[in-house]
Amino acid sequence: MKVIKVAASVMRGNEKIALENQAVFRNNNVFVVNIMGSPGAGKTTLLLKTIEALKDNVRIGVIEGDIATSHDAELIHAAGVPVVQINTEGACHLDARMIQLALTHFNLAEIDLLFIENVGNLVCPAGFNLGESARVVVSSVPEGDDKPKKYPGMFRVVDAVLLNKIDLSGVFGFNINTFREDVRQTRELEIFEVSCKTMDGLSGWIDWLMGKRSAVGY
Amino acid sequence: MHEVAVAQSILDMAADVAKQNNAVKITRINLRLGAHACINPDSLEFAFSCLSQDGIADGAKLWITQVDGDPFGLEIESIEVDD
């Protein structure tokens, strides 16, 4: 019997490509936001509202990740920005390799801000670095106020939380203090209470996003 | 969360190292697992035992040590082989 030293990360394949993606984004001055959250939290609608608010000032691109269909990509395309749909055909998350392949369909010199909408899932996407500049999770009132406590892995890796459908908090008996406190127990994070329907709170999110982008010098 | 894919990566990496060292059998793989890596050790062992059947690591033991270092990390520390 012989012991052979290995000392290598099991995720090294993904990490290596994530670093390559990061270098490509940096060389092209592209700020990249990975948007995660449950199915139905409102990721695509948030994206559409954000595009609407920013597209006259910033050149935007979108990568849509879904298990199947190009439904979301069609919505984004109709908003007039370049979009690439990734169909994971069963996989529950996007990985760095999928992003690397999707990037070949963009002219990055013509993009300032790239959104990656991840597969709707509060677990797996949190484990895969894509080489992005910022990560956010979209949570929504109908999902319940217990999500930060039940899915701490997601809340540990993001830079901000968007609590969507805030106009429904009364209907669903959603306790915002419980939600905020449970996020805080995991990490101190900026939480934006927004409604993509009434447009409440969206300017705070957009200011934060643009602030993060300026902070890296783009 | 995706223990089957992780088990396959472990198996591939360990098999590569074993072959580079001219070993014919892997008997044990020592892993270091971070507290927030979101890997369930039982599921990982089960997936590994299924995937490794009839190959170089058939019957190999996965030895998982929880570590404080990188909380999101999962590392193969070493493998034990027979020549």
Keywords for this entry:
heterodimer; A: about 220 residues; Rossmann fold; 7-stranded parallel sheet; 9 helices; globular; B: about 80 residues; hypothetical protein PF0899 fold; 3-stranded mixed sheet
Give the DSSP E fraction of chain A (strand runs of 2 or more residues). Answer: 15-25%
Give the number of helices of chain B. 2
Question: Tell me, what's the shape of chain B?
Answer: globular
CATH-defined topology of chain B: hypothetical protein PF0899 fold
Task: Going across the biggest sheet of chain A, name each strand in turn.
Answer: 4-3-5-2-6-7-8
What is the count of distinct domains of chain A? Answer: 1
Share of helix among residues of chain B?
25-40%
C-alpha-based Rg of chain B, rounded: 12 Å
Count interface residues per chain for the largest interface: A-B, 21 and 28 residues
For CATH, the homologous superfamily of chain A is named as P-loop containing nucleotide triphosphate hydrolases
Shape of chain A: globular
Termini gap of chain A: 55 Å
Structural class of chain A: alpha/beta
* SSE order of chain A: EHEHEHEHEEHHEHHEH
Beta-strand content estimate of chain B: 25-35%
Termini Cα gap of chain B = 34 Å
Main sheet overview of chain A: 7 strands, parallel
**Radius of gyration of chain A, in angstroms, nearest whole number:** 18 Å
What is the correct CATH architecture of chain B? 2-Layer Sandwich
Average predicted confidence as pLDDT of chain A: 96
